[in-house]
Specification:
The complex is a heterotrimer, with 1 copy of chain A (about 240 residues) and 2 copies of chain B (about 180 residues).
Chain A lengths: L2 H13 L6 H13 L3 H6 L1 H22 L8 H38 L20 E4 L2 H20 L10 H15 L1 E3 H5 L5 H16 L3 E4 L8 E4 L4
Antiparallel strand pairs in A: 2-4, 3-4
Chain B lengths: L1 H12 L4 E2 H8 L3 H17 L4 E5 L3 E6 L21 H13 L2 E2 H8 L4 H10 L2 E6 L7 E5 L1 H7 L10 H6 L6
Antiparallel strand pairs in B: 1-3, 2-3, 4-6, 5-6
Classes of the chains: A mainly alpha (about 240), B alpha+beta (about 180).
Chain lengths: ~240, ~180, ~180
């Protein structure tokens, strides 16, 4: 099936969703996906993200729909569903617009960065008696930022919410960061090859997920056959 | 000429663009005069074929490299502010730019996913700043874009941000 | 002339003097040739009366401000621009204040991003100083806050820094 066709079907499904037939929707979705050649879809990233969005919206509505699970949906719920549907659409449009605007802004920044500003301000120390810029330092703001940055750091290391007797993710994050620091570029397979127990492997994996989530490192797999490359994430 | 000397020296050592008012105050000249000096400096620089020029507008100025030799500067230039920024972060940046001042909740609502870590990333890069608090119970923090954001995108002010439709209106131009 | 363009652009954005070998390798020219271009650049700069020149010797070169600028400024009082620190710089400053003496690597680790340029900014503004070297291979530089930092924040000594939440009081801390 053509992608465009699939997308339009998904859209109409979304519109029709307030109709009362969950079973049908299930079948339809499964059929739709079965008929799709995933290879082709992956080639067209644009459409792929649209599909993901549409499907996500569908499932979100579906989940809400399934919640009461009683004979009839109450009319208030019905209205809620319609509102949800509109919201999902509005969100879809807004979301897609902003994500493209984000990319447009980034390409603007990239273009501007082709011209690089002078980087000599360390010389101001020795320039003339009065440097051109007087730095103000707000004590309150300083305290706030200090608190925030350490809380952020500590919360990465915390994991208080995990109460089970799990491997020490804390330690795993530290050793993960250290080995990435040492090697700058490494692979997941490389990291995993050093563990001795399955618990350690789990810890490494969790640590990696956390480190990625917090932006410490980037992980990338170009295609299925390649190793998962891991590198440190640099600022500015 | 004394003014030209002072302006060029200051721009060399300044940390980012210098506001025009700084020079008009310092040198006791009017804005028109200042802009003339800027143009003078640029025509000097292009005559001698240097690799940088003075980028200026009605608000600020800065010495920056010409854009046709970037590959020779790869090893000396600072890493891009975009380096390592994910598409979710860019999307969050766009939402904050257009909806500011805006709360984390509102950003998350628009994106449909929790956006705390994206906002934190943008904040630690200096593209986004806390701009106040919303006057409701709980006083949620309001976020906005920073001067660094303007400098990096090259907009003089937020008023210059194109309306969202403009990004989509002409499909066949674009980056 | 392309080489002049590349050399001037590189010197503008370089953070400190550039070794001559960098240019001879990049442009595939010999040293004599390079020194000629340097002299060329300097004669250009003095002709157009700019406030900086190229200081070079047989090893390195850099663009620096001319020494008579202070004389020009004697008669005027430079207005000061009040400028706050950006979030990246503030975060970096906070980490250095609490963790000092601390290496760049440790700061980057706590922030989660490479923090070299933030440290440079703080150093150039006198808020942060090099306070020693760590006694491990490679001797990484240790950073600490300056008296200027105390003066600006109004803390009388580092002991006055507020304790940060419950995060440091937990018994099982310390890495």
């Amino acid at each position: 099936m053509e992608l465009i066709e699939l997308i339009s079907k998904l859209k109409s499904l979304l519109i029709d969703f307030s109709d009362n037939n969950n079973k049908n929707t299930n079948t339809n979705l499964i059929n739709l996906f079965n008929s799709l050649n995933l290879e082709n879809v992956r080639k067209d990233i644009e459409s792929f993200s649209e599909i993901v969005l549409l499907v996500a919206s569908l499932f979100e509505l579906k989940a809400k729909r399934l919640l009461p699970q009683n004979e009839d949906v109450d009319w208030i719920d019905e209205i809620q569903l319609i509102k949800d549907k509109d919201l999902a659409f509005a969100r879809l449009l807004q979301f897609k617009a902003f994500s493209e605007v984000g990319i447009a802004l980034a390409s603007r920044i990239r273009e501007n960065e082709m011209s690089i500003g002078a980087f000599k301000y360390y010389q101001t120390l020795n320039l003339y008696s009065k440097p051109d810029i007087e730095i103000t330092l707000d004590k309150i703001k300083f305290n706030e930022v200090a608190e925030e940055v350490f809380v952020r750091y500590k919360s990465i290391k915390g994991f208080d919410h995990i109460e089970y007797n799990l491997p020490d993710v804390d330690e795993a994050i530290n050793s993960l960061l250290t080995s990435i620091d040492e090697r700058l570029n490494t692979t997941f397979e490389d990291l995993a090859s050093e563990v001795e127990t399955s618990e350690q492997a789990v810890a490494i994996f969790l640590a990696l997920l956390e480190a990625i989530r917090w932006g410490f490192v980037k992980a990338e797999q170009v295609n299925n056959n390649e190793l998962i490359k891991i590198e440190k994430n640099y600022e500015e | 000429m004394k003014n030209k000397k002072i302006i060029t020296a200051t721009l060399l050592v300044s940390d980012g663009p210098v506001p025009n008012t700084y020079f008009t105050d310092l040198l006791e000249i009017d804005e028109k005069n200042l802009l003339n000096i800027f143009e003078d400096i640029n025509s000097d620089l292009s005559n001698i074929n240097f690799g940088f020029y003075l980028r200026f507008d009605s608000v600020k100025s800065d010495l920056v490299t010409v854009s046709d030799i970037p590959k020779y500067l790869d090893s000396v230039k600072p890493p891009s502010i975009l380096k390592g920024l994910s598409t979710p972060a860019l999307e969050t940046l766009a939402i904050i730019a257009y909806e500011q001042p805006v709360t984390k909740l509102k950003v998350s609502e628009i994106r449909g996913v929790e956006s705390e870590s994206s906002i934190k990333t943008l904040e630690s890069r200096g593209l986004v700043i806390k701009s106040g608090e919303l006057d409701v119970p709980g006083s949620p923090i309001l976020y906005g874009t920073s001067d660094e954001f303007l400098a990096k995108t090259g907009f003089e002010s937020l008023d210059e941000l194109p309306t969202i439709g403009e990004y989509f209106s002409s499909p066949n131009e674009e980056e």
